[in-house]
Structure prediction request, 284 residues.
Amino acid sequence: MPPALIELMTISKLTVAKLTSVGGGQMARALIGGMIAKEALSPNQIAVIEPTASSRDWWSQTYSGCQTSGTEASGIVAAMDNADLVLLAVKPHVMSHVFENEAYNFGDKLVISIAAGLQLGTLVAGVGHDRVVRVMPNTPSLVGEGAAGFCCADGVTPSDVDNVEKMLASVGYVTQVSESQMDAVTAVSGSGPAYMFLLIEALADGGVAEGLPRQTALELATQTMLGAAKMVRDTGLHPGQLKDNVCSPGGTTIAAVRSLEQNGARAAMIDAVAAAARRSRELK
Ligand SMILES: NC(=O)C1=CN([C@@H]2O[C@H](COP(=O)(O)OP(=O)(O)OC[C@H]3O[C@@H](n4cnc5c(N)ncnc54)[C@H](O)[C@@H]3O)[C@@H](O)[C@H]2O)C=CC1
Ligand SMILES: O=C(O)[C@@H]1CCC=N1
Prediction:
């Protein structure tokens, strides 16, 4: 039996023998860490190519059995050996260095890029084949509450799509979109956690301004964001309806909603998404 088949493990119906991540930073940690936590992958199926020694140490200390390599040719070759799935998790501007590096042999391996902005055409040209998936995940994947959109180049098989969907579904919500929608996905859910963290922080700041201890305010604000998101997801009710249900006539909430509308909160969020989408388009 070929070594790749001997190694093959099927956990949560995800079939990957070995995943090699090029780059081991924030998003690789969130995505792979989330999959390991959900037992969709085990550390001995992971190899990480990472130039920073402290980051390599983090991987090997956090996930015993995970293989780490530097970016010298021998390290790249060792990490790519037997990989059947390659995750490109470097910053968009670093991707051209990866593609120009002759130590990489992508063979016919399935390649997933999570780089913002970089289009399938660029990825296919860099990788040298078209079995390439462009994914926009987000950092809550780490805690199993990610949201991801993806699109595929022509060489991706239905079984590849199935595997990518299972991989991403193991850490949250996933949807396939057209490539023309990827900048919007990036702006809504890829960057979105940052907007939500900012809102939680601001809500807590408001509580502190009204006299609450910082920790109490932060816990109340965090749980409120979590509860509101779950209400939208689990009831299926329109967020406007749920908002109306909180607003008692002449009460406290409508006073706050009025203030938010006067300060352009809704337009500010729409403009923020437009700014992120614009930046995503610039990155290509
Ligand atoms: N941070 C986020 O929330 C999200 C990030 N992304 C995308 O994920 C990609 C990575 O972003 P982050 O993880 O945030 O960045 P990061 O800076 O935390 O991680 C990138 C890693 O790549 C390593 N690296 C640099 N040069 C390299 C090379 N030549 N070969 C291999 N590794 C190299 C760096 O040392 C670093 O650890 C980006 O393309 C970004 O657009 C996508 C969705 C969300
Ligand atoms: O800020 C960025 O460019 C990346 C892509 C989406 C989230 N973080």
